[in-house]
Specification:
Helix content is 0%, strand content 55%. The protein is built from no helices and 16 strands. A hairpin with a 2-residue loop joins strand 7 and strand 8.
């Protein structure tokens, strides 16, 4: 059991037979009455989010989530197949749990999978990946005084805005948490 004041964003707890992932939380001390904690959490079963108010001192059922390094193998229908890097066990993961990684991870790329009671809860891409530019329009010469950008297409099919000097064939470092271009990588 975990005290409600100790929960943080990203933690998972169990309530009402469902697992809830904390999206945000706030300690509230009203002018009149007892303090409470306002929690916005997302259901693992339905994907819906909901707000809860817990009294200070309430306890929630903590769950043990296992983190494993896995390799993205291939997409099969509406599932992605991952292989545990240590045991070579395969995990079939529904596509809706992989929306955050589909633009950033190529086949054979490393990911982290989060497991609870033999069920995959989510899949996360590494914070930074390097991807090759496969389509880029030429930049305009002399247009470097401003932070002008242009769209390019990466090898995963993801389109991103980058500085004008980026060309087809360049390898870029991308922040997967925001989807933003960080730098050009020397090939």
């Amino acid at each position: 059991m975990i005290n409600v004041q100790d929960i943080r964003k990203g933690m998972v707890y169990k309530e009402g037979g469902d697992l809830w992932t904390v999206m945000s939380m706030q300690h509230v001390t009203p002018g009149k009455g007892a303090a409470f904690v306002k929690v916005r959490a997302r259901s693992q079963k339905t994907g819906n989010s909901r707000e809860y108010n817990y009294k200070s001192g309430d306890r929630l059922e903590d769950v043990q989530i296992f983190e494993k390094e896995a390799t993205y193998s291939y997409k099969q229908g509406d599932e992605y197949v991952f292989m545990d890097s240590e045991t070579f066990e395969q995990y079939n993961v529904p596509a809706e749990l992989c929306e955050d990684i589909e633009h950033f991870v190529l086949e054979g790329g490393e990911c982290t999978i989060y497991i609870y009671e033999d069920a995959v809860l989510s899949v996360a891409a590494p914070n930074f990946v390097t991807l090759k530019v496969i389509e880029a329009n030429p930049g305009l010469k002399g247009d470097t005084a401003t932070k002008a950008t242009k769209p390019v297409k990466l090898e995963t099919g993801y389109e991103i805005n980058v500085p004008l000097f980026i060309e087809e064939g360049n390898v870029l470092k991308i922040d997967t948490r925001t989807g933003d271009y960080l730098e050009r990588v020397k090939g």
